[in-house]
């Protein structure tokens, strides 16, 4: 929770500060900390399966965090002179992430509890992802933050986020839905929805890899970074729709 509070403070400072070095530094640092917030929330959701009460608290923490994100990211865009359609887009996107994934993650959690699946390897993988996210963020900061580093840091943040989202979707597809990854790869014995869920998850991974390549450049092209983010957003939305359907069908079995 402390990490989420720290990220929210950074975003608040970035949103309400006047244009200058302090605003830029707060914005760039927040770019690198909020993907780790996603992993922190996942850790709280899925590493406390033995407690039913934690599920409700996890949903509340997630909803509060994303409500703050939706409001203050919109304020940040407004303070930077973004057009009205971008303000609405930013608010709706963050509101969607907050509401949709709160429902999906709670559903996945309840299914794992019903399956009595307390496999600790999920926790281990997520902790490894968080370690990699932290290391990548530290390296990005040591390479410099400032007005000319925005696109590079945006690419770094996308790579960090792709790791966590791919982990989450893989839990839903393989652990909850029971899809055999070996058969999925070798014999393609998948329905349309299951195949689409895997496709969008793979697309997220490819976007993350592309973002990593861009983040290694000192001055990546803005259009390239924005293009990768756009494809990633499509993959997130498509992956959510397909994965939610897969998990819902598995729940009714």
TrEMBL record:
Keywords associated with the record: Membrane, Transmembrane, Transmembrane helix
Organism listed in the record: Pelagomonas calceolata
Membrane-spanning segments: 31-47, 59-79, 85-105, 126-145, 157-176, 197-215, 227-248
Ranges in coiled-coil conformation: none
Protein name as annotated: Uncharacterized protein
């Amino acid at each position: 929770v402390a990490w989420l509070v720290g990220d929210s403070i950074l975003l608040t400072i970035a949103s309400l500060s006047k244009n200058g070095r302090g605003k830029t530094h707060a914005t760039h640092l927040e770019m690198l900390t909020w993907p780790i917030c996603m992993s922190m929330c996942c850790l709280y959701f899925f590493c406390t399966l033995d407690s039913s009460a934690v599920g409700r608290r996890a949903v509340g923490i997630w909803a509060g965090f994303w409500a703050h994100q939706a409001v203050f990211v919109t304020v940040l865009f407004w303070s930077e002179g973004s057009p009205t359609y971008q303000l609405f887009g930013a608010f709706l996107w963050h509101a969607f992430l907050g509401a949709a994934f709160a429902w999906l993650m709670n559903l996945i959690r309840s299914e794992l509890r019903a399956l009595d699946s307390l496999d600790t390897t999920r926790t281990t993988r997520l902790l490894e992802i968080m370690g990699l996210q932290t290391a990548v963020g530290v390296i990005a900061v040591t390479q410099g933050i400032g007005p000319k580093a925005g696109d590079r840091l945006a690419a770094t943040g996308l790579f960090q986020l792709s790791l966590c989202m791919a982990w989450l979707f893989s839990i839903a597809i393989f652990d909850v839905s029971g899809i055999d990854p070996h058969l999925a790869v070798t014999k393609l014995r998948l329905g349309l929805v299951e195949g689409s869920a895997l496709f969008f998850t793979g697309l997220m991974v490819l976007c993350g890899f592309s973002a990593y390549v861009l983040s290694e450049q000192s001055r990546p092209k803005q259009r390239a970074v924005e293009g990768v983010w756009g494809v990633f957003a499509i993959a997130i939305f498509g992956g959510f729709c397909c994965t939610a359907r897969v998990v819902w069908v598995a729940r009714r079995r």
